[in-house]
Amino acid sequence: MAFSERVARLKSSLIREILAAAQRPEVMSFAGGLPAEPMLPKVEWAEMPASMGQYGMSEGEPALREAIAAEARALGVPCEASQVLIVSGSQQTLDLASKLFIDPGTEVLLEAPTYLAALQAFQLFGADCIGVPQEADGPQIDALRQRLEQHKPAFAYLIPTFQNPSATRYSEAKRDAVAALLDEFGVTLIEDEPYRELVFDEGSATPIVSRLRKASWIYTGTLSKTLLPGLRVGYLIATPDLFPYLLRLKQSADLHTNRIGQWQALQWLGSEQYKGHLAELRAFYRLRRDAMQQALLEHFADLADWQVPQGGLFFWLTLKQPLDTRTLLNPALAENVAFMPGEPFFIEPDRHPGHLRLNFSHVAPERLGEGLRRLAAVIRQAQAGMAA
Amino acid sequence: MAFSERVARLKSSLIREILAAAQRPEVMSFAGGLPAEPMLPKVEWAEMPASMGQYGMSEGEPALREAIAAEARALGVPCEASQVLIVSGSQQTLDLASKLFIDPGTEVLLEAPTYLAALQAFQLFGADCIGVPQEADGPQIDALRQRLEQHKPAFAYLIPTFQNPSATRYSEAKRDAVAALLDEFGVTLIEDEPYRELVFDEGSATPIVSRLRKASWIYTGTLSKTLLPGLRVGYLIATPDLFPYLLRLKQSADLHTNRIGQWQALQWLGSEQYKGHLAELRAFYRLRRDAMQQALLEHFADLADWQVPQGGLFFWLTLKQPLDTRTLLNPALAENVAFMPGEPFFIEPDRHPGHLRLNFSHVAPERLGEGLRRLAAVIRQAQAGMAA
To answer: Where in this chain does the entry annotate a coiled-coil region (chains A, B) (predicted)?
Structure first.
């Protein structure tokens, strides 16, 4: 069978395999990024007009595009509804952006670590990925300047607010510095913000796209983390030089996003009910974050370092004594514990051993301590084996 | 702005522009392929479990995959549920298959004419498209053999049952002949069947994939023509050598298809209610097909030749005096009539003037005669201009 060249770059998805293993009910899973089941809001469908069953526009529902543009403007993103494209979950933004920008060998700039599924999508299209080391308050600015001086990336893909996996929230100063550098070098920014609304500790985080003066940009978000991921409704907002191409690529990919999910999203976006739901969600996840922090202090204080995440869904642990955390997966699953190894979040996995991504939204607090105790034991045993 | 090479191959979508123009309420549109609004079934959502709001599997809902496999087996397609992938409308099958097979310069085999959006999707990925002329009962078999002897296509993309745009239903003999040739040359078949259930005149049409003995295949269908296109739920069934790649490509494209649409599709598929709905749909469209035939005989008998479609949604007209039908678009729209020019359905549009695709499902019968009268007048005027 003669497949395309890109199929050779199609990785078997570690995430899918881990999540499949984690679906056994006895498994305590810190692996996924799923919303907690009890926090999925009850939704009503009775009022949906029959016309939502018909074909729709590739751009998305006009009223939803207006609502998303209004929310974005309130965040400081300068945009009109005409710049909003409704996508089938924000994963699709990565596919469309890859098609727009990436030929085999095209350079793209990413945080190190970065979102695994973005890295895989860009690599599938043949991108030559360049990493910028991440610090507690955002990317190393000197490294970013050096990369921009030495390379010609088609775009920079950044997740500045509660990054997956590192949970980093860029500081104001770094947001400004990044924007200034992208303007200086004329590099397009793709800013991915799935976790913006899942904030537990207040603080300013105006999007970087709102600080750009010249560079083109795509800003992308989703309803999956705050409403219902099963709707598969996300969006992108793009500068007018990019929008028409993204629209045609969207049409070629799947004609348009399902309208029933779009209609449901519109019932919530900007409503008092949604504000109330977001407040409940933050309170719920804050408690789980705090419970995880307590349990980590108990079981991991001597094993790893970490920052307390101010938002999002993950803790990012750095082992004091690094080892390839992929080797821990099977022993952990044998103890009915699932987690996400850190290596695949890096462009060169083998050069970045010793990180674990732990989701805190899914495991119920009463099982948390036991799950982390078992995971710590697996790590201790592996490290003892290394020392031996 | 440095875009990817493929963006240069991204055509402005004539379809989208025509459909946009056709949305003005005063326009009588024969352009689209939309189901008739009165035939969109009333659907219920009250029983949908809350769990459909959570993330799902990239493969799709297990029960829906089972139901689709059962329906396919009843048609003679040998398959298991494990070979079924739920996609975001069958347009997505074209995107996934393009990713799986097409590098710039990869040869693919298509009917001439073929489905416009498929042609555009394959060309976007850089396919070198090879056409096989279509006759009233399917492709010219001699031409097909000759193409297979002279080329090495990665796949053949065929729409054997009520093809869009030509409405052709392959004969039994041609189905067998095509299968034998694809087996002989070891060429993968992509068989696209959106219109299978919209049949007005009985007759056998077992899928070609069920006649293959060796060649790999992808069989793709959709709920969009028979239930609700707004759900964006389609499917593909693939041989086991192709399935794992298509699954990973699906995950990279949009994680999974929306679950609410999948749940709704499952309520209908295989039910008595669905069988009743399909019977009503066929009766409704048969009447519209017959009304269109009458109106065409009245207004187009001296202008064009055509076959009466036995299924699907379109008449395909061949002008007795060919001209570039794209030049008729603006004069027709000035008369508040929209139609689809035939040229873009061919790999080399300029070499195939003189066809029109007319949809018969959308325009109400009482406006049909007036719409076709105006369209015929536009054609007569253009032909008179050519003669002058």
So the answer is: none
